[in-house]
Amino acid sequence: MTRSLSCCVTWVETTDRMHIIRSIEEMQREANSHRAAGAVIGFVPTMGFLHEGHLDLLRLARRRSDVTVCSIFVNPTQFGEGEDLARYPRDFDRDCRLLEAVGCDIVFAPGVEEMYPEGDTTWVQVEGLTNVLEGAFRPTHFRGVTTVVAKLFHAVRPHLAAFGQKDAQQVAVIRRMTRDLRFGVEIAVAPIRREKDGLAMSSRNTYLDKDERKEALALYRSLQTAQRLFSGGERRPEFIQRVVEEEILRSGAMKLDYTAVVHPDSMQPYEGAIDGPALVAVAARIGSTRLIDNTVLGEE
Ligand code: PAF
């Protein structure tokens, strides 16, 4: 359980060894004092309802920094109309217990009004990279992600921020934003954490019923097939893409949004034979749940 820390400024709560901060000003003050003391700040932005994949990010950030901050904020601007903002799973106390157990120092959990003050009209938008794959199906999604991550970087002032490879396009977009705006934040990426049967961990997996959960494994199977083809010498992107697509559609229950074989930094399709790392990205819907997954071919 969290409790208020009476000696401190309003909006600061604490568990036994972890601070919970709700205001941007307080977060900046805390970050500035750590920076002034020469500490390296590692940051993990999340929307909460944490799983082992998030905790891997925390562990990565902890290994590389002196002070670890995790933000929990379900960001309304990255959900499109008709998407799952209202039902997005939330359990703040459980998240705090998990974070404390992995040694997180600060939880930054602002409210919506704190992040988006009334009447605000400012967006941060990366162009090009954001209108393909996920961006083609969720046209306002990345604008919401880059805007909130820019605001979070501004509040937390991290030296390093950790993101999951599962959202491969998000990683590419955030790297570009960080470089273009010269944030001076190193972007670290942790591998996809999977359940024992291969399903990529996601807070949205909780939406799946038993049958859907089983059918969803078609995504992982399709990516394994891509890896097998590549290991066997196959280098034709369109052939790999077609086989991946067929494997997913074979499940019968999944509705495909896209399959793609693209350059991992530009998200542009491979033209001609694959001659470097290639991202195989898939997105499909099962029932009312949308899932994404990916694998990188030819990764050293
Ligand atoms: O990956 C996520 O959980 C979100 O997109 C992020 C980076 C926390 C921004 O809201």
Explain how this protein is built.
By secondary structure, the protein is α/β, with parallel strands linked by helices. The protein folds into two domains: 2-190, 3-Layer(aba) Sandwich (Rossmann fold), CATH 3.40.50.620; 203-295, Pantoate-beta-alanine ligase, C-terminal domain (Pantoate--beta-alanine Ligase, Chain: A,domain 2, 2-Layer Sandwich). The chain is 36% helix and 20% strand. The protein has ten helices and eleven strands. The chain has helices spanning 24-36, 52-64, 92-101, 112-115, 134-137, 141-156, 168-180, 210-215, 217-231, 237-250; strands at residues 3-4, 12-14, 19-21, 41-46, 67-72, 106-108, 160-164, 186-190, 255-262, 278-286, 289-297. The strands form two sheets. An eight-stranded mixed β-sheet has the order 1-2-3-6-5-4-7-8, with helices on both faces. The chain has a three-stranded antiparallel β-sheet with strand order 9-10-11, with helices on one face. β1 (3-4) and β2 form a beta hairpin. The longest helix has 16 residues, at 141-156. Residues 45-47, 75, 78, 145, 148-149, 167, 170 line the site of pantoate. The site of pantoate has 10 residues, from β4 and α6.
Short description, anyone?
The protein has 300 residues and is α/β, with parallel strands linked by helices.
